[in-house]
Design a protein that fits this description.
six-stranded parallel sheet, Quinone Oxidoreductase, Chain A, domain 1, homodimer, alpha/beta, 13 helices, Rossmann fold, about 30% helix, seven-stranded mixed sheet, about 350 residues
Chain lengths: ~350, ~350
């Protein structure tokens, strides 16, 4: 076993379970790592590292769970516009238990449940040290998967519903495609919690009725297939007002069809491109309907936001979760050793499955 | 001659030249009018009307010049999303001389040069009465064509350069397609007056060198054909910074090519669709480049703006014109009787000719 130094891992003199204690009492972390960009199933491998000494601002965390997100896959493939240094431990979010804290760490104590709130920290490892400012203590009663997957999809949904149109303040209607995606399920639940009517577009499929029922149970006002949207009369018949905000993770015909149903001065926010087709907008929509079109990327938001803004958002999301108003989308726990199953799922689902795979370090 | 009443025309007891004085001393206006939507060359006809008595808020204006704009043509065709009542006198802008004022009119005097600042007032007639609040007195030294064509293209250029990105305050670079259009020529001149570098895209044509020279003389920093834009190195070589604002009146490939050269967080404003292709935006531009896309329509702006905002804009445009920093685009004066020539030109040019036809009532 090669024990190489890895700056992000720090040593701890302890005999906690699962720790590999070497002759010099070094702590060893089991981690996934890649040294070159490529197919995750080829380039991501296990290795064990001695954790270096804990710095004064550092927190040693035993990871409990970390999801496999589309962005993780794209980063490993070298296709994601976030710079990482190689070798790199993948994983952008996750939850763990604090084992030990550095001398100057404040507000975090051993035993606390913490989430990683900043990307590219490397969460796919059983034990890791993080700078205190990338962690946030969460309530113990917060569900494991909710905590592990809190910073990407729920926060993306939260921001898109907050930053572009005053949907919450004015009770404006929201329409979204890819409504069964992990983010889409969060959008529906936050809409319900905030009393916002929402129209949800999904692709047709054999189990469409079950899917509609599932999304309606989450809080969907209407669920329509893309075909049904084309000929729907719900807006003409004023069963629901025309949407002011469209959330788009598909592009192509799907986003075009959504924007056709928008109110005057409506906006569309694009956060994904599942169809791989670009967003197409008729000139007349821009000029005569005062349509406007934006993009959203959680990573970019996090880079610009103040810690106060981030805290406000995360606290609100946590409240929704602990009040049982926001639960994690359909997911499957996969033992850390079987990570290839989770990665394979993310690769074949093109990143927009309704079922998220979560690495289980317990 | 059938003398029908027409509520927008008011009588005046005067013997000014060109007035047709009937037995009862009624004033007769010669006007273009259409009673049904259709091909302007078929449905627009001359007629003469007795001008009804001047109301207390009304101003009698002898028109001097009025342009034939694409919007005029589209309105007559019934394709423009502005409601008009039939029968309708076409013409949305123009300049004239005040002949007489109603009892309660303030700030406007006989002999003043005035422009019509609100659409759908019907400027294609030799004499007309307008409510005082749709008129603005302009300096006598303001050029006839500049005055007649002030409210659409110069104001559109002014607003697009003011309302979406702080190009003036921060010296950001602007890129536009259809740069030889009437609006495009205004954009170039306002950019020059404000010290804003600008990149101008035009279609290739036999007389491309003359066109480039003409636009450079107006103030263009760079003029490129659409083909040249695809392979240009001016941004790579940092001869000019990447643009932050793109103005689009073409759509399709042209707008796509422009947005590829934008800075991070750049915006595009669409105000026309000359290619008849929609605006297409790659998903990655929205998400990873924080691109945003808007539309602009002068008519809608005018409906929402306060009279203070309008005055501020028009005064600034007039100043630019009287300081010789902003001149009317290439134009041709056409005698009122020969209006069909002007309309025919607007029909065949698809509304984006570099040469604007202006009706001459003198």
């Amino acid at each position: 076993m090669a024990l190489l130094s890895y700056t992000k891992l720090l040593p701890l003199a302890t005999t906690a379970k699962n720790y590999v204690i070497t002759a010099s009492r070094s702590l060893v972390s089991k981690q996934l790592v890649y040294t070159e960009f490529g197919n995750p199933l080829d380039v991501v491998k296990f290795r064990e590292y001695v954790v270096p000494p804990l710095g004064s601002q550092d927190v040693l965390v035993r990871m409990l769970a970390a999801p496999v997100n589309p962005a993780d896959i794209n980063t490993i493939q070298g296709k994601y516009p976030v710079k990482v240094e190689l070798p790199c431990v993948p994983g952008n979010e996750g939850v763990g238990t604090v084992e030990e804290i550095g001398k100057e760490v404040k507000g975090i104590s051993p035993g606390d449940k913490v989430i990683v709130t900043k990307p590219v920290q490397g969460t796919w490892r059983d034990i890791a040290s993080f700078k205190q400012d990338v962690l946030k203590v969460v309530p113990n009663e917060l569900g494991l998967v909710e905590a592990a997957t809190l910073t990407v999809n729920p926060c993306t949904a939260f921001r898109m519903l907050s930053d572009f149109k005053p949907v919450r303040e004015k009770g404006l209607v929201v329409i979204q495609n890819g409504a069964n995606s992990a983010c889409g399920q969060n959008v529906i639940q936050i809409c319900k919690a905030w009393g916002i009517k929402n129209v949800n577009i999904v692709r047709n499929r054999p189990e469409i009725n079950e899917l509609k029922q599932y999304l309606q149970n989450l809080g969907a006002t209407y669920v329509l297939t893309e075909e049904e949207l084309r000929s729907t009369s719900i807006f003409k018949d004023i069963l629901i007002e025309r949407p002011s905000l469209a959330l788009n993770c598909v592009g192509g015909k799907s986003s075009l069809e959504m924007l056709r149903h928008l109110q005057h001065s409506g906006s569309m926010v694009t956060y994904g491109g599942m169809s791989r087709d670009p967003v197409t907008v008729p000139t007349s929509a821009y000029i005569f309907k005062n349509f406007s079109s934006y993009g959203f990327w959680m990573t970019a938001w996090n880079e610009k936001a103040s810690s106060i803004e981030k805290d406000k958002m995360i606290n609100e999301v946590i409240s929704l979760m602990t009040e049982d108003k926001l639960k994690a989308p359909v997911h499957k726990m996969v033992k850390f050793d079987n990570f290839a199953e989770a990665v394979g799922n993310a690769l074949t689902s093109k990143g927009f499955t309704g079922c998220k795979y979560v690495l289980d370090f317990c």
